[in-house]
Amino acid sequence: MINIYVLILLCALVTFIPRLIPAIAVDRLNFGPKFEKFLNLIPYTALAALICPGVITVDPNIWYVGLVGALVAGGLAWKKVSIGAIVIITVIALIILYSIIPYFGLISVVL
């Protein structure tokens, strides 16, 4: 039976080596401006891929709540508001939205 510590060490190496090689090699390579722009956009696309499913599925009964929150937060970020203020203002906006939904009968709205 394989020792658990050896197994953990091997798993760590398998994870670490593919991350180490590009970090070492990138300093020696010269990329064109278009490829550098592409590389700079990868974190934003990864973040969008993580956020979008949550925005769409935040409340299955009221599908547009996540969209409203994302639009408010995105608009504030576009105006370069601080992250703390973005969170507070978006939460307040969604509290207001949730409080007015019953008055307009918008709960039964379906995509």
What attributes does this structure have?
flat, 4 helices, 0% strand, 111 residues, mainly alpha
Account of the protein in words:
Helices cover 76% and strands 0% of the residues. The termini are far apart. It is mostly helical and 111 residues long. It is flat, with a radius of gyration of 22 Å. The model has no long low-confidence stretch (mean pLDDT 86). It has helices spanning 4-26, 33-56, 64-78, 83-104.
Shape: flat
Mean pLDDT: 86
Helix percent reads over 70%
**Helix-strand category:** mainly alpha
- Biggest sheet record: none
Poorly predicted runs of 5 or more residues: none
Cα distance spanning the termini: 54 Å
* Proportion of beta-strand residues: under 5%
In total, how many beta strands?
A: 0
Radius of gyration over C-alpha positions, nearest whole angstrom? 22 Å
Alpha plus pi helix count: 4
Briefly say what this structure is.
By secondary structure, the protein is mainly alpha-helical.
Topology:
Layout: H1 4-26, H2 33-56, H3 64-78, H4 83-104
